[in-house]
Specification:
This protein has 111 residues and is mainly alpha-helical. It has a single domain, classed as Winged helix-like DNA-binding domain superfamily/Winged helix DNA-binding domain (Arc Repressor Mutant, subunit A, Orthogonal Bundle), CATH 1.10.10. It contains five helices and two strands. The chain has a two-stranded antiparallel ribbon. Strand 1 and strand 2 form a beta hairpin. Helix 1 crosses helix 3, helix 1 crosses helix 4 and helix 2 crosses helix 3. The longest helix is centred in the last third of the chain and has 32 residues.
Length: 111
Amino acid sequence: MELRHLRYFITVAQQQSFTKVAEKLFTAQPSLSQQIKDLKQEVGVNLFDRSSRKVKLTDEGRAFQVYAEKALENAKLAVAAARQVAQQKNNQIHIGFLNVAEIKVMPQILA
């Protein structure tokens, strides 16, 4: 399962239309349908009821949506945490001394 599958699933659940979602995500409708089909196969249950003109979540789909939204939010938090650590590393200053004479000079410069 990829984050893309979860994004597509959540967007279809919100919009209740494969056509609208395909347009919104700049993807072909058959491709979107295939991604949702792949997700359905992986999860092992029907996530949508497609018998009417509008696409509706099944009970299983509603339960899945709660955790899919949390998974996407956690993925965003994971990216933010990694970037924050990288930013902190970039803000560090490393100073080295070349010889003993600089031990007296360098502290005065840094003060």
